[in-house]
Amino acid sequence: MPEQKDEQIKREHTLTVNRVALRMKQYHRGDMDKVQHFVRVYTLAKSIGELEKLSDEEQLDLELAAVVHNVEGDKVAETKSLLRDCGISDEIAIRVCHMVLNAENYEHISTLDHQILAEAKLIVDFKEQGTPEKEIIRKAEDVFITNTGKLFLKRAFHL
């Protein structure tokens, strides 16, 4: 019986993230670069979170933040509105907004899911921006904490 409940929670989790991802695809109105960017960050963050064994709640927050992290304009208002439109509770929306707003403010990372978002975003940004190896190594030493994030970074850039 507990296994069935776990599977139900995972299905609901997946449907929730998919609803938000669909809304983000509509939000970006066919800008495939932006859509591909959030899909890359989401895929990497999801994998790191699962391998780092986040709780179901942390994993959901992480995945939602990865999907909506590149909302433009007033990030808090736009992100809250988008999440609410998808049926996300205010409590989760506030937490996701905090992670999104501070995705590049490494001194304000206090939770593992937030750390993973920052690491996934950096790996994708490094690749998309063609960041020089020296800069990647410096940032990796300053920011990366998770073993999985470090491993993905090393494999992605042959470090």
Keywords:
8 helices, Hypothetical protein af1432, mainly alpha, 77% helix, 159 residues
Offer a quick outline of the entry.
The chain is an all-alpha fold. Helix content is 77%, strand content 0%.
Report on this model:
By secondary structure, the chain is mainly alpha-helical. The protein has a single domain, classed as Hypothetical protein af1432 (Orthogonal Bundle). Helix content is 77%, strand content 0%. It contains 8 helices and no strands. The protein has helices spanning 2-27, 32-51, 56-68, 75-85, 90-101, 112-129, 133-143, 147-157. Helix 1 runs parallel beside helix 3 (56-68) and helix 2 packs across helix 6 (112-129). The chain is globular, with a radius of gyration of 15 Å. The N and C termini lie far apart (45 Å).
* SS field, number of helical segments: 8
Q: Give the percentage of residues in beta strands.
A: under 5%
CATH topology category name: Hypothetical protein af1432
The quaternary structure here is: single chain
How many runs of DSSP E, i.e. beta strands? 0
- Give me the CATH architecture, please: Orthogonal Bundle
Largest sheet: none
Secondary-structure element series: HHHHHHHH
Report the top-level CATH class: Mainly Alpha
Mean pLDDT: 93
Pick out the low-confidence regions: none
Distance N terminus to C terminus?
45 Å
* Rg, nearest Å: 15 Å
> Any idea what the shape is?
globular
Helical proportion, percent range: over 70%
Any idea how many domains? 1
Task: Provide the structure class.
Answer: mainly alpha
